[in-house]
Amino acid sequence: MELTGAQALIKSLEMQHVEVMFGLPGGAILPVYDPILDSSIRHILVRHEQGAGHMAQGYAQVTGRPGVAIVTSGPGATNVVTPLADAYMDSTPLVVVTGQVATTAIGTDAFQESDITGITMGITKHNWLITDVADIPRVVAEAFHVATTGRPGPVLIDIPKDIAQSTMEWYWPAPEDLDLPGYHPVTEGDPTLIREAAELLLAAERPVIYAGGGILKARAADALRELAERTGIPVVTTLMARGCFPDSHPLCLGMPGMHGNYTAVTAMQRSDLLIALGSRFDDRVTGRVSAFAPDAKVIHVDIDPAEHHKVRVADVAIAGDCRLVIEELLLALDSLGLAHSEATRGGRGGSPSDAVAGAPAAEGSMAASFPRERLAPWRAELGEWQTRFPLVYDQQPGAGPLKPQYVIEQLRDHTPEDTIVASGVGQHQMFASQWWQFDHPYTWVNSGGLGTMGFAVPSAIGAKVGRPDKMVWAVDGDGCFQMTAQELVTASSERIPVKIAILNNAYLGMVRQWQEMFYEERYSEVYLSPDLPDYVGWAEAMGCVGIKVESTDDVATAIDKANSVDDRPVVIDFRTDAFEKVFPMVAAGASNDDIMVDPSLIQDLGA
Amino acid sequence: MSMYGTDQRHHTLTVLVENKSGVLARVASLFSRRGYNIFSLAVAPSDNPRFSRITIVVDVESAPLDQIMKQLDKLIPVVSITELDPAHSRERELLLATVEAGPETRGQVIQLVGVFEGKIVDVGPEHLTVMLAGAPTKLDDFEDLIRGYGIVEMQRTGRVALPMLDRADHRGRPAAGTADTTEKAG
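Predict the joint structure of the above. Result:
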């Protein structure tokens, strides 16, 4: 069967079970857009290519399947650079197809030419410039394989216009036909190291599981829960891992880091063993590295061996898939429990026949008794901190400024508990992460590593496309909203009913907070305006329902009204208190020991 | 002080890469964005047309060797990385230099080239262009000695290296050819 390169590309995407792609056509990608008309793949026409990339990210983060974006050459391609960098930081599987000028024009500064493979070399897991039409199916298969295996990440396929227009004999490569001699991700952990980890774990007195985004990538939430429950070890969930372990679980300490809660931050500081699972000791988590968790030994499980010892030297570094390694760790704990119980019984002069190899660990054996009893004092200490240093804010009822935390709590309490929340970057993101109760994996979509303002609206749209069965709310800031709001036109025209809560404090709030705290209240270029733009008018112009809320009395009503709309997007402009700051806070470069809690708790801290 | 030689800061990596366009750019871009310093770098086809070999001398003061190797390893076209222990590898480099060699000193320069088993590759009225191939330390010594005559221009290729051949000694212990080979992961 003879196909054009363009047809082969679309057919290859179909072979990869792509159901939706986000994109915007242009000159160099024109040939590829023609067969889209005949394809089963849904194409969502965005208003700006950055939106296509973030939508693909939102889709990937909630479904676990690779997000696909397709854009033209030159400015189309450079507009998708930010989503690629974002996906690279947060290990999101993304396949981006870019048009390129004809091979004969490459290097001549042709119209809409940019060296996108060169530009994105450092922010993709890999990229390809196709120079032979016959390579298309194989490269697409390789691209999906690379994006989704090992440590997931974004990849880019650059396809020159003349390659898309020439013809080839169709084939679909078998797995062994992929030409990736240098790519063999390790998934299974080394059994010796896993056993060492199990031994460390059984000896620890103040252990903390430091769960990162890798838990979600590995679909290891169930395994993590089993590990925590069987050992009784408390869990912190990083910004990228919110929802991988239920916030309502008694062992959950919540989010650590720069704006983490006191208990999560301090538990790590006082810990004697950090069990880092799919987390990478990001500077926002560690604070000053030299002062981070000074007494802790470290078990570090990561599928990317380059993360080991990068920031913090690990005592046991295990390269492998988090789910597989946790499952093996559980088995190792079983067998250690048996060994311990045998030894114990031997020591007490029990008959050798009691110690039958392979017998299940009896109640009262080391492994079975280890959890609750051994760690009870540690958990009690953590419980005291939780009581003394809760997250707090002070909302006066009625008029008076709305507290952003109050809005988040109302949203949380007036939406289904498995609602997906997407956020931008800044104060609203931290408030959302702190005050939402994440009890389900894949319900939190945000830009963690790159910190891309404007992420919320498009990623919420992508999330809703991926999970149309779930309610999707974006929690956004007014600064962020203005960066990518145009994608609500996409959502309206495609009937994608996302809901947007703007916490409108008329400021670039996080920058304002830093200027207040660290720049002597010298506010430089952070004031926006509560009324310019007119958010309700803007929302309506984009085909959405627009609502403005200024009083606590109207918060719940507005949320309920938004929830009842299912044929178009809704935007709520919540007028929030510009003076509210995110606490706790560890200042940049400071030790986590110097965590600043909400000023209203300071008396307690001195007590 | 020796420019090359056996400085502990410098480790030699030989990196087998797919012979595809842009591979050198990927390696260079990785070093630049992670802030790793390259001391020298040489690229050439290997015996297998599918692969090329890059010999990189890295400065491990800029980053731990373990990190440099693992990050390199993450590049998809990188097939394998071998760290060569200078004590157990053969390292060679080539030097070309145009040296001041007027009538008074010409004889001395020629003599020096002869002692080092180099070659005169070009002759002018006041200059000689000389070539020397050998171990990097030998090139260092030669460079120091000819500097006194006046170097007009000089170029060194950067080193290439291969592990010493595996010769089991009489006690049956195989000579360690390589310090560490990383199979691709991740």
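The first helix of chain A runs from residue 5 to 15.
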